[in-house]
Amino acid sequence: MEKPWYFIQLSDTHIVADTRQESHGVNTYATLSRAIAQVNHLDPPPAFAIFTGDLINDDDPQSYRVL
């Protein structure tokens, strides 16, 4: 029998270049880091992850590098 699989969707991460900056009282970099740590501990691991929504919060190329 084939093993079941699943995937993870992360959305609207709103990352900015300055990893200490908050948006609406939330440090999006820290929040994403915690989410990734949780995903990395899943057993069995997901087959893949999808990032949707607003990945960065501005048009700064450094924000994409941080992401």
What report would you give on this structure?
By secondary structure, the protein is an alpha+beta fold. Strand 1, helix 1 and strand 2 form a beta-alpha-beta unit. The longest helix has 13 residues. The chain is built from two helices and two strands. Strands 1-2 form a two-stranded parallel ribbon.
What is the topology?
Layout lengths: L6 E5 L16 H13 L7 E5 L8 H6 L1
Parallel strand pairs: 1-2
Which descriptors would you attach to this protein?
elongated, alpha+beta, two-stranded parallel ribbon, 67 residues
The biggest beta sheet is recorded as: 2 strands, parallel
| Uncertain stretches | none
What is the distance, rounded to the nearest whole angstrom, between the alpha carbons of the first and last residues?
38 Å
Kindly report the average pLDDT value. 95
Number of strands: 2
SS-based class: alpha+beta
Proportion of residues in β-strands: 5-15%
Strand order of the largest sheet: 1-2
Radius of gyration (CA) equals: 14 Å
Shape designation:
elongated
Number of helices: 2
The SSE order reads EHEH
| Helical amount | 25-40%
Summarize the structure.
With 67 residues, the chain is α+β, with helices and mostly antiparallel strands. It is built from 2 helices and 2 strands.
